[in-house]
TrEMBL record:
Keywords: Membrane, Transmembrane, Transmembrane helix. The chain crosses the membrane at residues 15-35. Residues 109-406 form the TOD1/MUCI70 glycosyltransferase-like domain. This is TOD1/MUCI70 glycosyltransferase-like domain-containing protein. The keyword Zinc does not apply. InterPro entries: TOD1_MUCI70 (IPR006852), TOD1_MUCI70_glycTrfase_dom (IPR048354). It comes from the Eukaryota. The keyword Membrane applies.
Length: 452
């Protein structure tokens, strides 16, 4: 009679053992990725103090409708974050360095004008691009009063560390609360949302605010009502003011994040600033465009899809830049990997160079249109001193922010900047019948047909 084996029957089969191991491993990984907000965000410590959601909206508001899914299933550009407490201390120490503000201060032109930006001529605007010799006053908006309450203005001046800024004009978006905030983040980061009266009425309709109150808070956001009656006729241009002149609205802040209202930030702003801005030792961080590399590609798309109502003015803008030295992107422009950003998310250190870029770009937007991607490369390439910028992968953008569709209005469609304006030219292309001769060399070089 044979000797009885001491190994349980269950483990005598190698195939069965392997199958069980595979099953439990798969279940563990599936559970891990299901509970993770993203597969591509890595914190150095799994014990970072992430807060629970801070605000609940009424069901009628529907702040999370119409999310736009991302198309990338793999992760080739993971985002690594340093320890939360180390990041917090580093940014706190920098923000408390009072000598930093004076050393980075710029001088601005102060006078009254018919427009908020002063409406300078082309050559006058370009004359301010060379700022290697400090002390020269430059135009940077505020030639008319920015109409907000004094209590909001005082709160903005008290924000002396990191500020997160957004805006909704024309009630075209929902207010979305950030996710993944650390336990001390709200003590060190200010959140300001600029709105017009139409947006404020929508918030009151959903009982999110009281029109009788002079100050409004929704979740983490302080709501700042802007009277746009004497600003720009176009709502998108009014939104450009807090987007690019954030360093003037928040004169004591050291870092800022601009986030379009169509986006929801899903990581802590301190960790994000440290990862893509501080660790990279740059003045600005912004995503490159998912499809376009050359400025003219974006200009053609803007005309083709009627993203701006005056197509003739688009041609004039591009001719102006081509005549004054705009070049298509080539490897010679490295370390800049592209000429076209996705400007829905902008992170800035409020350095002299970053502030100069913001002022110069704002002046171009007022001169032509609020499509900031069209002037981006021209200003970046021609300004002195040079801007240190991290143009990160689109995949990174999709990992740190969730995008939603704009509010749908009655009558169908999505609100656009051309509402209230009649398109001046219905051509589907920007350059037809050999027009725009000033950009011919640019186009030949972009298409690889130049023999220069």
């Amino acid at each position: 009679m044979g000797k009885a084996t001491s190994t349980p029957l269950l483990f005598q089969s190698k195939l069965l053992c392997f199958s069980l191991f595979y099953l439990f491993s798969s279940l563990f990984l599936a559970l891990y990725f299901a509970l993770s907000s993203t597969k591509c965000l890595f914190r150095s410590s799994p014990f970072d103090p992430i807060q629970a959601p801070l605000f609940s909206y009424p069901s009628s508001y529907g702040e999370h409708k119409y999310a736009i899914p991302t198309l990338r299933s793999s992760c080739t550009s993971p985002v690594y974050f340093s320890d939360y407490w180390m990041v917090l201390k580093e940014i706190q120490d920098f923000s408390r360095n009072s000598s930093w503000i004076g050393s980075q201060a710029m001088k601005y032109i102060h006078r009254t004008a018919d427009s908020f930006g002063g409406n300078f001529s082309t050559q006058k605007r370009f004359s301010y691009f060379d700022h290697r010799y400090n002390g020269i006053k430059i135009p940077c908006g505020f030639f008319k009063e920015f109409p907000i309450n004094i209590s909001d203005r005082i709160a903005m001046e008290k924000c002396d560390g990191v500020v997160v800024v957004s805006a909704i004009f024309g009630d075209h978006d929902k207010i979305r609360q950030p996710r993944g905030l650390g336990s001390k983040t709200l003590d060190n980061v200010c959140f300001f949302m600029f709105v017009d009266d139409a947006t404020l009425k929508g918030l009151a309709y959903h009982n999110l605010i009281s029109r009788k109150s002079k100050e409004h808070i929704i979740g983490v956001w302080r709501i700042v009502k802007v009277s746009t009656k004497h600003l720009y006729e176009n709502a998108a241009m009014n939104g450009v003011i807090p987007k690019y002149l954030v360093h003037r609205l928040f004169p004591n802040s050291k870092y800022s994040i601009w986030i379009d209202a169509k986006l929801q930030l899903v990581v802590d702003p301190l960790l994000l600033i440290h990862s893509v801005l501080v660790s990279e030792n740059v003045d600005m961080a912004i995503s490159r465009h998912p499809y376009y590399v050359h400025t003219m590609e974006e200009a053609m798309a803007t005309a083709r899809w009627k993203k701006w109502w005056d197509v003739d003015s688009l041609k004039k803008q591009m001719e102006t830049y081509c005549e004054n030295g705009l070049q298509p992107w080539t490897p010679k422009k490295l370390p800049y990997p592209s000429d076209v950003p996705d400007s829905a998310l902008i992170l800035r250190k409020h350095s002299m160079t970053s502030n100069l870029f913001s002022c110069l770009l704002f002046n171009e937007l007022e001169a032509f249109n609020p499509r900031d991607q069209l002037a981006f490369a021209y200003v970046r390439d021609h300004m002195n001193p040079k801007l240190k910028i991290n143009m990160f992968d689109v995949e990174v953008f999709e990992q740190v922010a969730m995008e939603y569709r704009h509010n749908l209005k009655s009558g169908g469609g999505v609100p656009s900047c051309k509402q209230g304006f009649k398109t001046k030219r219905a051509s589907a292309d920007l350059f037809v019948n050999g027009s725009c001769s000033k950009c011919e060399r640019y186009l030949l070089k972009m298409w690889g047909e130049s023999h220069d």
